[in-house]
Amino acid sequence: MTRIDEEAVDWAARVADRDFTDWDGFTTWLEADAARSARYDAAVLALAGAERTVAQLPAGTSVVATASQKPGPARPHAGRWLGAAAAAAVIGAIGVTAWQERAKPYAVETRAGEQRVLALADGSSVILAGGSRVMLDRADQRRAIVEAGEALFRVRHDAARPFRVDAGGLALTDIGTVFDVKRAGALTRVAVSEGAVLVDPDGAALRLDAGETVVAEGDRLVEGRVAVSDVGAWHEGRLAYDGAPLGEVAADLSRQLGRRVRVSPAVATRQFQGTLDLPSLRSDPATLGALLDVRVHVDASGWTLEPRE
Questions:
Q1: Are 256 and 130 within 8 A, CB to CB?
Q2: Which residue(s) pair with 197 in the sheet?
Q3: What 3 state SS string does the chain have?
Q4: How, if at all, do strands 302-306 and 261-263 pair?
Q5: Where does 105-230 sit in CATH, by number?
Q6: pLDDT score for 108
Q7: What are the structural domain ranges in the chain?
Q8: Which of these, 29, 72, 246, 285, is most buried using a 10 Å CB contact count?
Q9: Is the separation of the CB atoms in 24 and 15 below 8 Å?
Q10: Distance between CA atoms of 218 and 220, rounded to whole angstroms?
C-alpha cells in the first residue's frame, strides 16, 4: 500500500468519526496533491466494505493480504471503488487488531475565559485553562497532546500503562502525578505539584518531583523550583509568577479573563514576580496597573499595558 493510500485510509477513518473537527487539516491534505481525492474516495468505500467484513468474522480470525491484493488506480467513473480484493488488502496491510484499535484522535478546545474539566475513562482528569487545546485519543486515553494554552493533569498512576503527554515535541511520562503543562510561544513549561514526571524519557530522562519545574525551548531544558500551591493555581483564580516577562503575563491574562490584553513593546520584557487575583482584575483593571507598575489603557478592544508617564 502506497503512502498516499495509507494517509487516505487514516483520513477516511478519522472523518467517519462523528466527533471529527479537523476539517482544515483534511482540506489541506486533499489540496496538496490532485491524486489524493481519488485515493480518499477509494479508501472510504474500501474501508466501509472491510469494516462489514471484519464485523462478520468469527472471533480470532485473521485476514492476510496477498501480494496481488494491492490497491490499484481508482476508476474514473462516478462512485469510484477498489473492490473486495483491495478491501481485503487494506485490512491485511493494517491488520485486523490495528483496524479495530486504530487511533481515534479528537480535539478539545476552550474559549478565552473558559475552563473545562475532562474526566477520562481511566479515572484521570484534565483541566483546560481558557484559550487552550488538547488532542486526546478514544482508543488510548492514557495519551494526550497539549497543542496550545495550559492544562492541569491529575493522573491515576498505572505502572503497566504510563500516562504520556506531548507538548511542543517535549515527551512527558507520569510517575503518579498532578502536573501542569503550559505552551507559551516557543516555550513549554512543566510544573509538578504531586508525585513525579519523567521529562524526555528517551533522551535526557529528567525526573521532576513535587515543587520542581522545567522550561523547554528546542533542545534546551532549564530546571527550576516553584511553590507547590502555585502549580495550576489558575484553576483557582490565581496567576503566580517568578520573573515572567510582561508579554507572557499579558498573554495569560487574555486567555484567563476572556478579553484582549496587549502589552507595549517598551514594557514587554519587564519581569514580574508576584501573584495576580483574577476575580479582582475582572472588576477593576486599574489594580493591574499598580501591581505591574504600568498604565492600563482600557478601550472597546481590550486592555493595553503601557509605561507610566
A1: yes
A2: 174, 208
A3: CCHHHHHHHHHHHHHHCCCCCCHHHHHHHHHCCCCHHHHHHHHHHHHHHHHHHHHHCCCCCCCCCCCCCCCCCCCCCCCCCCHHHHHHHHHHHHCHHHHHCCCCEEEEECCCCCCEEEECCCCCEEEECCCCEEEEECCCCCEEEEEEEEEEEECCCCCCCCCEEEECCEEEEECCCEEEEEEECCEEEEEEEECEEEECCCCCCEEEECCEEEEEECCEEEEEECCHHHCCHHHHCEEEEEEEEHHHHHHHHHHHHCCCEEECCCCCCCEEEEEEEHHHHHHCCHHHHHHHCCEEEEECCEEEEECCC
A4: parallel
A5: 2.60.120.1440
A6: 93
A7: 3-100, 105-230, 237-306
A8: 246
A9: no
A10: 6
Point out which residues pair with 135 in neighbouring strands.
107, 145
pLDDT in tens, 164-196: 999 988 999 998 889 999 998 888 999 999 999
> Strand 164-167 to strand 125-128: parallel, antiparallel, or no bridges (unpaired)?
unpaired
Spatial distance between the Cα atoms of 45 and 104, rounded to a whole number of angstroms:
19
- As given in the structure block, the three cell numbers for residue 162 are 504510563
Rounded Cα gap, residues 254 and 262, in angstroms: 8
pTM of the model as a whole: 0.67
Q: What is the pLDDT of residues 218-235, one digit of tens each?
A: 888 999 999 999 999 999
Q: Other CB atoms closer than 10 Å to residue 264's CB: what's the count?
A: 17
Q: Which amino acid is at 302?
A: G
Contacts 24+ apart (CB under 8 A), 155-163: 155/124, 155/179, 155/195, 156/122, 156/123, 156/124, 157/195, 158/122, 161/122, 163/124
What's the mean pLDDT when you consider all of the chain? 81
Cell of 276: 495576580
Give residue 263's identity as a one-letter amino acid code. Answer: V
Task: Give me the count of residues in the chain.
Answer: 309
Distance (Å, rounded) from C-alpha 188 to C-alpha 248? 12
The domain made up of 237-306 has a fold known as Phage tail protein beta-alpha-beta fold (3.55.50)
Lowest mean pLDDT among 36-40, 192-196, 209-213: 36-40
